[in-house]
UniProtKB/TrEMBL annotation:
Protein's recorded name: Uncharacterized protein
Residues annotated to bind cyanocob(III)alamin: N254, W402, K403, L404
Organism: Oedothorax gibbosus
Compartments in which it is found: Secreted
Keywords from the UniProt entry: Cobalt, Disulfide bond, Secreted, Signal
Predominant place of localization: secreted
Domain of life: Eukaryota
Signal peptide per UniProt: 1-19
InterPro entries recorded: Cbl-bd_prot, Cobalamin_Transport, Terpenoid_cyclase/PrenylTrfase
Gene3D superfamilies: 1.50.10.20, 2.170.130.30
Gene Ontology CC annotation, any one: extracellular space
Gene Ontology molecular function: any one: cobalamin binding
GO-annotated biological processes: cobalamin transport
Cystine connections: C180-C222
């Protein structure tokens, strides 16, 4: 197990008590249970002269409660509303906690940042292949924000993941779980999936690899929930084996292993379940990092969200994208111009999947060339509003602002037309030329 830096962040709120014990972290559904006790602690300095002399100046004790779970996660969020390479894990945690105290605007900005990180990873995939487990996490994160991972702007990430592992002799069960959540199991290759999951259960049960066994049980039961035929006797055997590995303190060895086992046993009845949950609750504010928070929160919410696909069981349709040749995707020409610098402008041509919004064009362009970096906030409707491009903000006093224009080629001359609304609602046509113009007048007055 890799050693992680232990980080404990304390809230600024203080309470006037002698001791405070967090019994269980906030999970998004109820208030944290706090045990306030006003006990007197014996001290070797009780009768000291200094204590007696200064007792009249003594103030009430101020104890700061450490942050954990959703509160900790939001406290370490970056300015771009993401968590860099851990954005997928953070979004999943927030989704299973019904987004905690985050506002609708914040949720939309976090969803956009997830798409940015995914696009960045996908673009880099041409030079640095994406690790299958990262792709599996992105599949779960897309489901968490109600985006179809089988058709993300024409890309079927589930099919891509299956191609990565199709020829592997041994498949990590977490990858099988992601493909099950994305409903790839029901696409005519179900026998292969059941075979892989069954082999994983038999193999890890034999060598006592408890974490891998828990993952394998999760994947196998997920396939059963997809109406695939599973061996209930084998499921019962694995459950009994896992339950028998529980320690006296309620754990299964450490916080990571315990979280995985609690998830795997979510559908089972076992006597010491509350003891395991109590162990995780206490660990959520003492063993704090992104990985532990991710595992703990999935475990604490496993009774309600057994699998990621259960977040939205009725309104998520995993319809795969139609096959397309990516080399045939059209280019969109995107230009930046400024009225203050009339002799220079910058243009980038980006190959985009069909039905991509111009906001997607902007995100991909910024990844390719820093001159196209931009800043935005969520409007009242939750859609992005651009307020700065290439480090140049809108200037209301100078009446200068970024205006989105589309170029229309007439027979006699070229002209420009303003594009109303958010760039996320504008869908360019193939080979169309789009311009963000920093100017005072409307596009039509150019």
């Amino acid at each position: 197990m890799v050693n992680f830096l232990l980080v404990v962040i304390f809230s600024s709120a203080c309470v006037s008590v002698n001791s405070i014990k967090i019994v269980r972290p906030w999970s998004g559904h109820d208030n944290p249970t706090v045990d306030y006790t006003n006990k007197t602690t014996k001290s070797s300095y009780k009768d000291s002269i200094a204590t007696k002399a200064f007792s009249k100046y003594r103030t009430e004790t101020c104890v700061a409660a450490p942050l954990g779970g959703v509160d900790w996660l939001l406290s370490v969020r970056q300015k771009d509303y993401g968590w860099k390479e851990d954005t997928h894990r953070a979004v999943i945690v927030l989704a299973v906690n019904e987004w905690g105290p985050a506002s609708k605007e914040d949720i939309r900005l976090m969803e956009h940042q997830l798409e940015v990180e995914l696009t960045k990873a996908y673009v880099k995939n041409n030079t640095t292949p994406m690790y299958p487990n990262d792709l599996a996490l992105y599949i779960h994160a897309l489901i968490a924000i109600r985006r179809n991972p089988r058709n993300f702007f024409g890309i079927d990430f589930a099919a891509d993941l299956e191609r990565m592992i199709q020829n592997h002799r041994v498949v990590h069960p977490f990858l099988l779980l992601a493909l099950c959540n994305a409903d790839r199991v029901s696409d005519g290759n179900s026998n292969w999936y059941i075979h892989q999951a069954t082999n994983a259960l038999d193999r890890f049960k034999r060598i006592n690899d408890i974490e891998a066994l828990a993952h394998a049980l999760n994947a196998y039961e997920c396939m059963g929930s997809r109406d695939q035929t599973v061996n209930e006797k084998l499921i019962d055997q694995v459950r009994r084996k896992l339950i028998g590995m529980q320690h006296e303190d309620g754990s299964f060895g450490n916080v990571y292993t315990t979280s995985l086992v609690v998830q795997a046993l979510a559908s089972a009845d076992w006597n010491n379940k509350e003891l395991a949950l109590e162990f995780l609750g206490q660990s959520s504010t003492t063993d704090v990092n992104m990985v532990s928070t991710y595992y703990i929160q999935l475990a604490l919410n496993a009774d309600r969200v057994r699998f990621i696909k259960d977040l939205y069981p009725t309104d998520m349709k995993m319809v795969p994208a139609a096959f397309r040749n990516k080399e045939e995707d059209p280019f969109i020409q995107y230009t930046l111009r400024s009225e203050k610098f009339t002799d220079a402008y910058f243009t980038i041509s980006i190959r985009m999947a069909p039905n991509s919004s111009f906001f997607d064009v902007m995100k991909l362009s910024a990844l390719q060339d820093s001159k196209f970096n931009f800043s935005y906030h969520a409007g009242q409707d939750g859609k992005p509003v651009i307020y700065a491009i290439s480090g140049v903000p809108n200037d209301i006093e100078d009446e200068m602002s970024w205006k989105l224009c589309e170029r229309t080629d007439n027979r006699d001359r070229s002209s420009y037309k303003g594009v109303p609304g958010s760039p996320s609602t504008f869908f360019p046509k193939p080979y169309q030329r789009i311009l963000y113009w920093y100017r005072r007048e409307k596009c039509e007055n150019a």
